[in-house]
Amino acid sequence: MKYAIITGASKGLGAAISTRLINEEFGIFSVSRKENEDLRKLAEDKKLFYAHFRCDFSDPKSIEITFTEIVRKLSGTNELWVFNNAGVVEPIETVGKLAPESVVQNLNINFLAPILITNLLTQRLAKSKVTFINVTSGAAERPIHGWSIYCSTKAAVNMFTQAGALEQETSNGNHVMIGFSPGIMDTDMQQTIRSSSKEAFHDIEKFKSYKEEGHLRSADTVANALIDLLLSGKVVNGEIYHMNKLI
User: Fold this and answer.
1) Is 3 labeled as catalytic in the residue annotation?
2) Is this prediction's pTM over 0.90?
């Protein structure tokens, strides 16, 4: 059986990825603060492996404990997909008005967590074939008013992905690392963005129009495009894939 670890699996893109993979007969490790009971039921109905782990991605110790336990349960696994999907857009605010605690939380969840997870699994599953899919954003490639922290962490994720992939290539390692930019989706993150202020985020009206005019893709549509890519066997190590180019 193939297995997948999905962070932020309880809702949005994480839940959609998990649902598709269960339908593809993957065993699932769901990692998030809360459990999506629909995922458990779907896996049970299909008689597939499913386990949920509660984790605080802003806490490095919680990450170490959680993923050490997951590795114990993965003993003997030959192939694994890891989706570093959990992320936050806050703080949405201009530099000079940023709350330090929000900055630290964003850095920990968006950037430090994928690093720690990837490092731990790369080390402890060196003989397995692990594909790491780091969910990034178009915000990694251009500055956006009010999103200095989000843009910066996603840009850092891209570089970490590419550097890690290069290291695997030069050492003839078993692992593959790619980035995936999902574009604009109809998720809770978009609702958070639309709830910000014009002063903090100058493009707020544009993002409101995405919702009003039906330009937001469903999480299912995005998840299916990503899984189709992975199942095709044509993934290139170190590539940053963009949803707009997959459809």
Assistant:
1) no
2) yes
